[in-house]
Amino acid sequence: MNKEAAVTPIFVQKSQFPIINFFNYSLFMKLPYAEPYRIKMVEEIRQSTQEERKQWLKEADYNLFNLKSSQVFIDLLTDSGTGAMSDQQWGALMTGDESYAGSRSFEELHETVKKITDFQYLLPTHQGRAAENVLFSVLVKEGDVIPGNSHFDTTKGHIEIRKAHAIDCTIDEAFDIENLHPFKGNINLEKLEEVYKTYPKEKIPFCLITITCNSSGGQPVSLENVKAVKELSDRYGIPIYFDSARFAENAYFIKKREKGQENRSIKEIAKEVFSYGVGMTMSSKKDGLVNIGGFIALNDENIFRAASNITIIYEGFITYGGMAGRDMAALAVGLNEATEFEYLESRISQVEYLGNKLIEFGIPVQKPIGGHAVFVDSLKFLPNIPREEYPAQTLATEIYKEAGIRTVEIGTLLADRDPETRENRYPKLELVRLAIPRRTYTNNHMDYIAVAIKNVFDRRDEIKKGYQITWESEILRHFTVKLKEA
Length: 486
Hints:
The chain has helices at residues 3-6, 50-59, 87-94, 104-117, 128-139, 153-160, 189-198, 223-236, 247-257, 266-275, 301-314, 325-338, 341-360, 378-381, 391-403, 412-415, 443-458, and strands at residues 11-12, 20-21, 74-75, 121-125, 145-148, 165-168, 207-210, 240-243, 279-283, 294-298, 373-377, 405-406, 408-410, 431-435, 467-471, 482-485. Helix content is 38%, strand content 13%. Helix 3 runs antiparallel to helix 12, helix 9 packs across helix 10 and helix 13 packs parallel to helix 17 (443-458). The protein is of the alpha/beta class and 486 residues long.
């Protein structure tokens, strides 16, 4: 006689536990999600009083970049270099080869980059903007135009300081926060072709695709769009480069949102994306999972040779380029970890968790939620603050005053002045970015952030004035600007 048939299974039910069949151990309740890591070390952070924060803001000239980290409870200023490294990365740090030339750590990094991107030449730099400086020193000349999808601040700065022009060809859907287009980082092909028709080929050194697109809300670019941009650019003889700081997050969205990509690995998708370009710049402080570093990867030997000379002048020898061997070793490990689905699911799910909390509270945010940050629409949040008083900066300071949370303005301050007219450039969106460091905060922190912003939202009618500039630099002013209450 079958023993299973002879025994009546026993069921036990408790309100907070799943129902379990103790005979065959099958679960009737789906297990909740859990992070694919455990915490090994913690760092103490201190909460401050609202009176302290108001004084600190005043001393910082109302520029959140000027705050000390000890004055910040939860730091969402940036996800760049602020994440936690894994035990494997810390182990790699201890075995880094600090040789000036021909470092073993460089070879490890070089091989890793080749496997992930298929680009054959590598030039390390100390961070992403250094990679832009080196590459653009070779490629960009006065009077050139560089089309792309919402170039970020340092990218645009490196273009404009060379008296060239960045032209935004992002799709219009990116600027409607309620539109649920799954790939708001996409390039509008009609806008791009208009650039190609308007300017001579020799004035367009390349088209730049930023993955994911930070300035449009951390929004991804589809594989289909990359292919279409490649096909169009080939017809006009224009090469494609990638700003690749968050390429792994972009590949994750392709896997999750693009038909036919769901069964492919992150590494497979990333390699195909890069196959449509001739080179890339990388801020390794994002999807490299390290605290410092960047690189250029190329397939063109002539450009590599020219860029090598610039690297030696500004960064260091071509096999370290401003990075310590230990940091290159940690980066090689980090690039492999960042291109695994389990890590990306954990990272992006936390960003979505915060975004969904804010949506539940009625906070106007860019939808769908992006990869590395949640972006709050300050024009809808604070409609009474005029554009010339910087509503996004105003909202960022109010969030800090409320709860010690440091965010960053992605609006008129960041957009800077037109280099020719010196008038403010008013972008289509005035955003406050809540950039989530990788593997750093828990969902309890996300709950704290959401409630803090809800508190500001509930008293938004009391916020009646913004800020005026008392001093600003000629370019990239938002880093060092000084403000006063309007």
